[in-house]
Amino acid sequence: MKTVILLLASVTIVAPQARYPGGGIGNFPGAGGGAIQFPGSSTGGTRPIRPARPGAGGSVRPGGGGGILPGGTGIFGGNDQGSGGTGGQDLSSPPPLSTAACPPFLTPQVHYNLGGRQYHYSWCVDGGQRYNWQEANNYCRRLGNGWQAISIETAQEDQFVVNILDSHDLPYIWTSGNRLQGRGWVWGNGQLVYYTNWAKTGFVPNRPQPDNHFNNEQCLSVLNRFYPNDGITWHDIECHHVKPTICERAAQSYSG
């Protein structure tokens, strides 16, 4: 009996390769561009960008900076690089601070004397740097010998500050004023804020200051006609915004 052996050849069936769009470069899908879309996956889409908070990227917030959240040094972060412009302008970088009106020192570190106090203008010494609130206060302390950021405790001292911002064409300064301890507004020397010159308007038109509009406005700044129908007045500001400052101390002798 003849045995018939049937040899069945193995046949390898090769399925055609699927092409997955990727928006890539050359023949490498996804190498630069859209994501690879596999069968059965959703096309998804771009996650919507949340609008930046006012003050981020140089918007209308006074001294606003480049990032939405504070960064940098100090407990408030800071080194924001966005707009510090006036009148709600949208600028990519803050305008330089003018030093044209800067006087020479009367005595070491002292630009002006008034009512038994001595004053130092940070922008006249550091090339027009800006600091967040903590950094501004640290700048003054580093001068030594009792220096701290200014406490505006009288109408005379307030008028002095108004004159300085006006004559130096400054958009704003930091003071030592704050309410970080939860016991109302105080100065850096621990004294409660009694004399005030709060603005009658602000980011929200015709809303008197302080209004804590962003629920984190804990530091006191003097703004120079920043908002329409405003003068050189006090505003509560988020502490990470960046500004120059005026430092002060009790009058001392030259050796002090």
Automatic annotation (TrEMBL):
Q: Does the keyword Zinc apply?
A: no
UniProt cross-references to PROSITE patterns, sorted A to Z: C_TYPE_LECTIN_2 (PS50041)
| CDD domains per the UniProt record, alphabetical | CLECT (cd00037)
Keyword match Signal: yes
Please list the coiled coil stretches.
Answer: none
Q: Where does the source fall among the domains of life?
A: Eukaryota
UniProt lists compositionally biased (Gly residues) regions at 55-88
Which residue numbers delimit the C-type lectin domain? Answer: 114-248
UniProtKB keywords: Signal
Q: Where is this region: Disordered?
A: 36-99
What is the annotated signal peptide range for this record?
1-16
PANTHER family under this entry? HL04814P (PTHR21407:SF5), RE43931P-RELATED (PTHR21407)
In Swiss-Prot or TrEMBL terms, this protein is called Mannose-binding protein-like
- Lineage summary: Eukaryota, Metazoa, Ecdysozoa, Arthropoda, Crustacea
